[in-house]
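Quick one: structure tokens for this chain, please?
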Amino acid sequence: MDSQKRSLGFLSLAFLFITCSSAEFLIQQVTEGRGTENNSSYNLWANLGVTRVLREERPSSKIVTIAGYSVIKERTELYESSVFEAAGYKWRLLMYMNGNKNDGGNGYISLYVRMEETESLPYGWEVNVDLKLFVHNPKQHKYLAVTDGAVKRFTAAKKEWGFGQLISLATFQNANQGYIVQDTCSFGAEILIVKPAEKQEKVTFISNPPNNVFTWKILRFSTLEDKFYYSDDFLVGDRYWRLGFNPKGDGDGRPHALPIYLYAQGFRPNAVVTNTWGAVNLRLKNQRSSNHRQLYSAAWYPIRSDYGVGVNNIILMKDLKDTSKGYLVNDAIVFEAEMVKVSVTNIVPV
């Protein structure tokens, strides 16, 4: 903005304070100075469309209240707030109560924030901000939050961002809308610093990982009780797994079929603990031929242990107990799990 115009604006505003003292014109500023960091990608020229949403929470960075709006409702000068701190930087709130004509503000209130005291920042500095500007609606006990969804890049060449068309004067000055109560109105800003993430969580799917076949032989099958039995844990990828079954059946397969399930257990030391993809061929092995009973199962296993996925009828009990078929030999059965694909998660640079 032109410095000469600013100087004239300051003189005019000073004159306004002197001549309108009898009208009890008061500008009250409230600064809370809380900044919040957030991670996002950004596009300087993105135009995602301005959104306006009412919310109950006050702006977290700055509030300026004008008691005596009627005094300045026709004025075109810029009002600059006092310096306030938010997210570790210094700022001012800039208001055109009758619109910034150089930014399409005819018929609107225009509102901006400007970085201040940037001399100590390093050469080539830039600060990326998720900016929201506000208009208080006392009638609804809420604040109208205005944003366009684009991250604002503040630099030495561009220290000022905002909205030329914050709210239309027709809406703002309509008594039924509730923005002006007892000739008083308030505006605010919320400045959230956007720091691009330096690391990312990368999920990789590994086909046929090392040591991916686990065999479990169960002896004295006929003596087993009506309960679940579990294999030893085995490690594939970043996670331990185990097999489990009930010799008397489970769910809809009970008591006519034999179940088998794969359970996800704990994680190896230093693993990134997340959901784990597990794709497995579950087999009841034929001990006399290659005619195995096999089921393919794939699922996201949650972080918690003992989550099982499988089938409750890998073989009918009558076929299992028919010793001529080769699945139950010398009162023993053999299960096998072939982990064909698992996920591994790492934290890596972006």
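The helical segments are 3-19, 69-72, 169-172, 317-320.
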